[in-house]
Amino acid sequence: MSVLNCLRYLMGFLLIVLRHQTSSLASSTNLNFQKDTCVSVSQGAENPSRSSDAIPTQEKKGGLTGGKRGLAYNEASLTYLFANQSTVSWGYNWAQFANGSLPSNLEFIPTLWGLGEDATSSWFTQASSAISYGSKHLFSFNEPDIATQANLAASEAADGFIQYMNPFHDQAELAAPSVTNGLGDSLGLEWLSSFFDACAGRCLVDTINIHWYGSAVDTSGFQAFVSNASALATENGVGTLWITELRGFGGIDLQLQFLETVLPWLDSNDDVSGYAWFMCAAGDGNLVSSSGVVSALGQLYGDG
Question: What residues contact residue 121 under an 8 Å CB cut-off, 6+ apart?
Fold first, then answer.
């Protein structure tokens, strides 16, 4: 195994640890989603409303109504620290409903996390409800290329996408399964390429969805990954991409430098529809400080 691959697997391990540390809802929510502790699904939730005064709409598809930046969160209350920021326009929590309310300027984007019955049995109801309350995008299958996440073969994911995502094609923009930046025949963009092969044109995909974790000094590596993903999208007749988990590891100064470099690049990149720093939570390297206020990273991310 190359040194680069060793470092990538180490990053993956650190991510799993990080997720266990940041997920404060795991013990009180749906334990059927233990494969990813970022998922926060309560048993009794109803509508995935963005706010109590959300106005139902059946408007189809379309871009975001604000900036490209989003909030990947577990605690919905923390998203209010970014209310009315012109650069931030959407949020998601790896789940089918918001698990609380979001500021009225944020679009909640539901996710069909995997193909277990605990996810699929409620998907049509929850996705339809989200769309009626203004959601214009739907995400599918969280990191199916990773055994500890959705863990799906490309053919399984293709069949699942056709069954559970295709029916919403006329109502929302549909994202392909979110893949990592892992290297190998069954990881990352290689997995995604196999997914499109398995679809054989039957999956009504509007956009692709990628995750990137790496060193905060590796801005060129990140940009190359995004460009490669964009090329794969174009090859398969898909227009744009989302980066729904993005994190550069390193000290706060390095992370700030990373964001200062990539934020304007992402905002000006027509191939990128939206992106989210991992994550809107309290703690080092997150958008919120341990004291519960917007961190230095969050200030840069929110203010643009």
Answer: none
Quote the crossing angle between the two packed helices 219-235 and 188-199, to the nearest 10°.
10
- pLDDT tens digits, one per residue of 113-161: 999 999 999 999 999 999 999 999 999 999 999 999 999 999 999 999 9
Rounded Cα–Cα distance for residues 164 and 224 (Å): 32
Residues contacting 272, CB < 8 A, separation 6+:
68, 226, 230, 240, 241, 242, 243, 266
SS3 123: helix
User: How many alpha carbons fall within 13 Å on the CB side of residue 86?
Assistant: 3
* Global confidence as pTM: 0.83
Question: Beta 107-108 vs 111-112: how paired, if at all?
Answer: unpaired
Question: Helix or strand or coil: residue 158?
Answer: helix
Is residue 104 within 8 A of residue 54, CB to CB? The reply is yes
